[in-house]
Amino acid sequence: MKKSKSPNEWIVVNQKCNNLVKELRREVLEKKSTMASKKGRLLLGILMRQCSNLSAIAVLTKVSVGIGNSILFKLPIGLLLRNCYMDCLLGLYLVRVTEADALEISEVLHIDYAKALFDEFEVYRDKVGGILPFNDEMLESIYTMNLEDNFLWAYEPNKDYDQIESCGERYLWKARNKKKVRSLIPENEVKNELNIKVVFETLKRIPQYSECAKNLYAYYKYFSQYEHFSESGFGDAIADFSNDNVNFEMALVRLEESITVIQEGLKNNE
After folding, report:
1. At what angle do helices 74-95 and 38-66 cross, to 10 degrees?
2. What contacts 268, CB < 8 A, 6 or more positions away?
3. CB atoms within 10 A of CB 253
4. Model confidence over 35-53: pLDDT tens digits?
5. Which of 81, 52, 20 is nearest to 237 (CA)?
6. Cβ within 8 Å of residue 80, ≥6 positions away
């Protein structure tokens, strides 16, 4: 992997990440044991994720500088930044909602998590298969019981079970309809409320969040090309800083701006 012709870019990104991490750690430690509201806990969780991702970027940029400003880790750094922008868009969205909305949104997010578990049996099988001397059918029964024990509130009986070809026992259940828990907005808005594009469209119509949301979404879309393979997108991820279309320092500036707004929202929520 070739070395970058812009040796200062990784250094600047590393410094900005370390400064942000230091500030975020202090805030998280101060508030994580005293935050009582659901909205506050959701915002604090997003800031904790920012801290984790930025810590990883700081490590990767430090290593990159140490090996001659290599762009070897430009791809994973871009993927981490993409997650940061996505989380910040959700954070800005949560800043503007009421506590009652936050309680419902939290349930919706839990349902999304519980729904994904239907497709994750093989992960469970690979973890316990070497420990429990059972075949896949028995392991699936145990997996299904675990789902029922921990997430039954998020499920409802699947009336179409008999029509699913080669389905496992876990598909006796399906995720609850989000409309049953999200009552404070019109029904036709529930399904896609937290879709990142819809979140952005909502935020850009609100003057105090519009500019910040536009910047976040633009960088989110840019680094999304790192996640989805194409020759052009991968070309950006391995191109020298002088030959790509992004300024990593400004990418961190825009992220910091949004983190500041979320921090202010968290403070106002106390």
Report:
1. 160
2. none
3. 12
4. 889 999 999 999 999 999 9
5. 81
6. 53, 56, 57, 60
**CA–CA separation, 35 and 154 (whole Å):** 25
In angstroms, how far is CA 135 from the centroid of its own chain? 34
Of the candidates 28, 43, 44, 181, the one whose C-alpha atom is nearest the C-alpha of residue 100 is: 181
pTM of the model: 0.93
Report the alpha-carbon distance of residue 197 to residue 140 in Å, rounded.
36
Residues in Cβ contact with 230 at an 8 Å cutoff, skipping those fewer than 6 apart: none
Distance of CA 167 to CAs 164, 170, 171, 270, Å?
6, 8, 6, 47
H/E run at residue 175: strand 173-175
Q: Given a cut of 80, is residue 15 above it in pLDDT?
A: yes
Q: Indicate the length of the chain as a whole number.
A: 270
Looking up tokens 């930044």 gives: 81
Residue 164: DSSP 8-state: S
